[in-house]
């Protein structure tokens, strides 16, 4: 029933936006804000993936004031470019309103958005069998609403991403074949040519590195090739943390660790994680260039969880803790800033609704901040600098996790296992 209600809401939005298609969508609002080409890849505009949900119940939407709390915290970290995921829930729409209000209150406030349109296959998230070569009827509403919002907030929305990990085949409940993404990317590019969207608005899809041709040959299809030619840039996801379980060879490799201290082993392992991400990016770039295409590539999503009681915890790859999260965050910023790429780091804040009912599921622990506003180790120096002074989260002042006791934090930091330890734990 909830899916039906959401779909009805989407259709209602689609109707109102269809009216704007014939009336105001041709009106190009002149703005003095920087263009996408000025923002993407510019280290002065750090990027972040954003979800502001504070409760285990995903139906409890953050208020405008709560969104403003988050925006001020992110802005204090010099984050000026956010990525959202869908428009069939109010959060993205309210986020744009919150940004607009903050800009009205303070002319120096800057925040821009890559607005996501969620894309599903037929029967996704239902009791029916997913039909991956047919699309959900709700996709059209997602696209039309994002186009409408891009025109309503041209000073804020600088890019649209069609789908989130919508082509990667391990997304078994909802993935689509590339022709679906290509269809809607071409539709939006057509609106740009017709003057119904700003010519400066960038269009992409945000997907796993393999979906962009950087993995197995099963992804190397003509529709993907045409998609790469159709987008304005490639938004690529890379998750070495997940692959400490699924592809652990790089994580378990002991060469070069002989005679090293535990801390040296951890730091070497995290540098390997950085190189693993770079290798996935380079594989995408190599495939793109094999098509005779040369377009910008940005990191649409990457991150490292601070806790896991599952695959990535004590009895698994021992990957997750606040210390390793901090190392990975800095490695990703260093690499992408130097390479002039945007990195939509996942994510600003922990989201308790993710990953099911288990509180120890790693999906709930990717934030740089905890839900109550405690800053994880990655941000302790920023707390010391006072950049969060006067700012709050859920009304709470920003303080350090572990009460700022690094010795206590380090007791939870484990050395990655050897191959023998790994296999022993799995038996």
Summarize the structure.
This protein is an alpha/beta fold and 427 residues long.
Helix-strand string: HHEHEHEEEHEHEHEHHHEHEHEEHH
> Sheet with the most strands?
8 strands, parallel
- Mean pLDDT, to the nearest integer, reads 93
Strand tally: 12
From the structure provided, what is the oligomeric state, counting identical versus distinct chains?
A: single chain
Global shape: globular
Helical percent range? 25-40%
Structural class: alpha/beta
| Uncertain ranges | 1-29
Task: Note the total helix count.
Answer: 14
Strand-residue fraction?
5-15%
Radius of gyration: 21 Å
Explain this structure.
- By secondary structure, this protein is of the alpha/beta class.
- It is built from 14 helices and twelve strands.
- Strand 7, helix 7 and strand 8 form a beta-alpha-beta unit.
- The longest helix is centred in the middle third of the chain and has 29 residues.
- The protein is globular and about 65 Å long.
- The N terminus is likely disordered.
- InterPro entries: Beta-glucan_modifiers (IPR050732), GH (IPR017853), Glyco_hydro_17 (IPR000490).
Secondary-structure map with pairings?
Elements: H1 2-23, H2 36-39, E1 46-49, H3 64-76, E2 79-83, H4 91-105, E3 112-117, E4 121-122, E5 131-135, H5 139-152, E6 157-164, H6 178-193, E7 202-208, H7 222-230, E8 234-237, H8 240-246, H9 249-252, H10 262-290, E9 297-302, H11 322-338, E10 343-345, H12 380-385, E11 392-393, E12 396-397, H13 406-410, H14 419-426
Parallel strand pairs: 1-2, 2-3, 3-6, 6-7, 7-8, 8-9, 9-10
Antiparallel strand pairs: 4-5, 11-12
């Amino acid at each position: 029933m909830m899916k039906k209600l959401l779909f009805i809401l989407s259709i209602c939005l689609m109707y109102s936006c269809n009216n704007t298609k014939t009336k105001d969508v041709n009106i190009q609002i002149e703005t003095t804000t920087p263009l996408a080409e000025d923002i993407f890849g510019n280290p002065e505009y750090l990027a972040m993936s954003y979800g502001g949900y504070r409760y285990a119940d995903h139906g409890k939407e953050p208020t405008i004031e709560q969104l403003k709390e988050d925006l001020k915290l992110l802005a204090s970290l010099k984050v000026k470019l956010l990525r959202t995921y869908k428009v069939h829930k109010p959060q993205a729409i309210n986020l744009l309103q919150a940004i607009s209000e903050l800009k009205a209150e303070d002319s120096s406030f800057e925040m821009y958005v890559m607005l996501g349109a969620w894309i599903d296959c037929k029967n996704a998230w239902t009791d029916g069998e997913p039909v991956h070569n047919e699309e959900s009827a709700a996709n059209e509403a997602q696209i039309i609403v994002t186009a409408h919002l891009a025109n309503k907030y041209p000073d804020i929305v600088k890019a649209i991403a069609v789908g989130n990990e919508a082509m990667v085949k391990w997304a078994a409940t909802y993935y689509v074949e590339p022709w679906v993404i290509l269809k809607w990317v071409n539709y939006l590019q057509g609106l740009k040519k017709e003057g119904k969207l700003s010519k400066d608005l960038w269009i992409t899809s945000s997907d796993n590195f393999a979906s962009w041709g950087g993995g197995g040959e099963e992804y190397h299809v003509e529709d993907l090739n045409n998609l790469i030619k159709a987008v304005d840039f490639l938004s690529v996801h890379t998750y070495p943390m997940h692959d400490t379980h699924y592809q652990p060879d790089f994580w378990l490799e002991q060469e070069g660790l002989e005679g090293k201290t535990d801390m040296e082993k951890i730091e070497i392992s995290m540098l390997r994680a950085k190189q693993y991400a770079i290798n996935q990016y380079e594989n995408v770039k190599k495939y793109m260039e094999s098509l005779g295409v040369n377009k910008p590539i940005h990191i649409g999503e990457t991150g490292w969880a601070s806790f896991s009681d599952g695959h990535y915890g004590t009895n698994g790859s021992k990957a997750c803790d606040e210390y390793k999260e901090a190392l990975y965050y800095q490695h990703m910023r260093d690499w992408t800033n130097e390479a002039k790429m945007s990195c939509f780091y996942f994510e600003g804040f922990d989201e308790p609704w993710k990953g099911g009912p288990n509180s120890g599921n790693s999906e709930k622990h990717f934030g740089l901040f905890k839900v109550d506003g405690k800053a994880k180790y990655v941000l302790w120096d920023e707390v010391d600098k006072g950049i969060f002074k006067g700012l709050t989260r859920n009304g709470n002042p920003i303080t350090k996790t572990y009460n700022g006791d690094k010795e206590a934090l380090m007791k939870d930091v484990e050395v990655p296992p050897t191959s023998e330890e790994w296999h022993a734990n799995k038996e």
